[in-house]
Write a structure and sequence with these properties.
Blueprint (H helix, E strand, L loop, with lengths): L1 E6 L6 H16 L2 E4 L11 H9 L4 E6 L3 E8 L7 E8 L2 H13 L3 E6 L16 E4 L10 H19 L3
Parallel strand pairs: 1-2, 1-3, 3-6, 6-7
Antiparallel strand pairs: 4-5
Length: 167
Amino acid sequence: MRQVFVSRPTTLNTEQRGLLDSISDLFNAYNLVPRTVGISNFTNKSPLVAVRAVMKECSGALVLGLRQLRIVRGVEKEGTSLECNRDDFYLPTAWNHIEASMAYSMGMPILLVKERGVGGGVFDLGATEYFIHSVISPGSNWVLSDEFRLSFQEWHEDMVAWDRRPK
């Protein structure tokens, strides 16, 4: 069984829960065990210490950027020459950015998945060399699509190679 760090919010709506359940089915098919601080792992240490400890036991990271905060109307870069109005967009949990950065700095294989409308940080195009998979509707059968399944398989192969690297 291969351990995988899963960066995700602790609170999910019904559609997001369905997406996670579909991804869990893929995890089971590939003998992967999800590890998430505050979900599968609990500690008396600070969250960053706990995340690092769990990641050290993992072969890769799945970062699920799910809608956690809806911004109906906002101003970006206020007071600068780049100031602009932003309407109706979503932010994921801030922990996605922290945990993705930690996994990236360790060099581990990362699979980035975001819900439509989520942006910022690790979910900005070009932030990493990884493709960002965008789920149009978390309640759909998107996880069963060739696009995602083939990427998932490639990510799994990268984790197998990661485990074989000299340590």
